[in-house]
Amino acid sequence: MAEPLLQTCALTKSFGAIHAVQNVTIDFMPGEIHAIIGPNGAGKTTLINLLSGDLEPTAGEIMFRGVDITRSPVDRVSQMGIGRSYQKTNLFTDFTCLENCWLGAQSRLSSSFRFFRNALDYDEVRERAFRALELCGLTHRRHVAAGTISHGEQRQLEIGMMLATEPGLLLLDEPLAGMGTNEAAEIIKLLKMLSKDHTLILIEHDMDAVFAIADVLTVIVNGRVLETGTPHEIHNSATVREAYLGAPEEAI
Ligand code: ATP
Fold first, then answer.
1. Which of 56, 65, 96, 240 would you call most buried, defined as having the most Cβ atoms within 10 angstroms of its Cβ?
2. How far does the centroid of ligand 1 lie from the alpha carbon of residue 5, in Å?
3. CB of residue 20 inside a 6 A radius of ligand 1
4. Are 72 and 195 contained in the same domain?
5. Which of 24, 37, 45, 171 best tests ligand 1's pocket when mutated (most atoms within 8 Å of CB)?
6. Residues 120, 146: one domain?
7. Does residue 205 share a domain with residue 129?
8. What angle do CA 146, 48, 199 make, to 5 degrees?
9. Chain-centre distance for alpha carbon 147
10. Using the 8-state DSSP alphabet, how is residue 148 labeled?
């Protein structure tokens, strides 16, 4: 059986008296789309922040490809191949779409290489930036300022910036937030396409989308894992219905 790409073991994060993530143990398998769902304040973003190195855990472990990354800072985590997008768009709005991807590509290089290998870096970074732009479907917008493209395209570009770091694992925090149906459909198409050669972990409130694209779902309530299973298993779980939805007859 395949080894997990990413594993958390008893992962815990407290903010004073608030236990945002408690004793979370999850195996994320290579190639899967794994959605983290749960009510507001359940600890989903905190969990993603721990996986990306944006936050340091209070206790527990995170292993990526068998390497302990529990206390690795965000730039190290990115260099190891974990990309992350944020809930709010995080773009350089005065820069073109290509320049945004360029910055993403550059961020993957370690600073010592950046200093010594300028000419070599230039070609590599340029190639990565173009590849990322193409993957996220925005080649035709390459010379347009990021601040002037639509909200949906901005989310696509965010994914592009992340792809420019050439990650094997993508952490996506509400990639469909604030989108209309057509824009959401574009992102869903993009995520499905990316899942062919990436592992995806995503938080998303749009349950129709989550159940349509996820291979595995983990339900988190009050910082704890309630259940992990296929969309079918989670959909039919009485525990999930009671704890998460409150009403047994209510469909997820
Ligand atoms: P939502 O779906 O609303 O985004 P979530 O499941 O992502 O919620 P988190 O944002 O992870 O939940 O928050 C979990 C808990 O931790 C909440 O009670 C929140 O108020 C608290 N929390 C998160 N970040 C901090 C922080 N930096 N300082 C103090 N408390 C925090």
1. 240
2. 26
3. yes
4. yes
5. 45
6. yes
7. no
8. 80
9. 22
10. G
